[in-house]
Amino acid sequence: MNMVKRIMGRPRQEECSPQDNALGLMHLRRLFTELCHPPRHMTQKEQEEKLYMMLPVFNRVFGNAPPSTMIEKFSDLLQFTTQVSRLMVTEIRRRASNKSTEAASRAIVQFLEINQSEEASRGWMLLTTINLLASSGQKTVDCMTTMSVPSTLVKCLYLFFDLPHVPEVASGAQNELPLAERRALLQKVFVQILVKLCSFVSPAEELAQKDDLQLLFSAITSWCPPYNLPWRKSAGEVLMTISRHGLSVNVVKYIHEKECLSTCVQNMQQSDDLSPLEIVEMFAGLSCFLKDSSDVSQTLLDDFRIWQGYNFLFDLLLRLEQAKEAESKDALKDLVNLITSLTTYGVNELKPAGVTTGAPFLLPGFAVPQPAGKGHNVRNIQAFSVLQNAFLKAKTSYLAQIILDAILNIYIADNANYFILESQHTLSQFAEK
Known about the structure:
Strand content: under 5%
């Protein structure tokens, strides 16, 4: 149970001695040579059995080693990665084939969860091996991507939204983890793997190529039972990792052509099962994607506008204003902060308008300030208009005050912002209200 204790934050057992490690490495090499160059023809089942024999050895040798040492000590690492990846994909497909989504999700989870012991749990051992391999660098990740590991795991993640509730039952054997803890442990390792993989570009491109990237956008904005919320949060973590590391030209093109932002906005708008608080949390994840994508392309921000994203935010502000939940005020403040940040997203820098003749700030020698730089100056007028229009429609002093504070902060953040926004006539409209 060493791996379980390590992941769950319990004290580590003693690591293998250098001698044991060297012997384990020799054994690993010998087993892999026998797999690749068998003395006789091996059936697929025999090959899989041989590979399963190697997994505990690999974990013992490299479980506590720096990831960089894997390729140094085990020259067949990439071939091994290919074999392990193929086995993982095959096992998952076997359990998903010709089943309902709930039956498939249960079968996959039962295979992947740890049981009475780590080494006796084949699926868990396979998963922990994949987790180790995902840490060892781009070449290994590219191997896993070629074997469809990212898209297979994302399909699983989407299926896990249909998992039944984990009953609260006592564990059987004395050293056996309760079912709820096993599920939490699986969820933790599962998302670790996907985050590690998606820290590189190739998995995001594979998800786009296999048409599975849209599953993540659907997942982060879909209702799921409360007991499966960790899986939705996992989908959000994966998507944010892709937004930071995987936004290649092909990925942005895919998101645009598949209208992924339209899916998100529609899901958040139309679901009667989502609370306003949940929707704010969903938009927080989506806003990270808009921010990161705006560093390389205006396309997704344009999509958000085309699919009525700003109208949705305006409606959500007014809806939250009337919400009765205790947390609604905090959620409203969070949403205003998110929209305030959204005002700075955009590829193109907006220039201040020229000084109007007769304006009160027309002083001798006065020069209109120029934008100080990305992150401070307004680049998204539509987002600012959401705040302005929500203030004009606000029915409570609370919403009006936090919007005023937000707009004040926008003006303070960059001296050029007042002049960029001059055509919005914000102050005069506010004064009339």
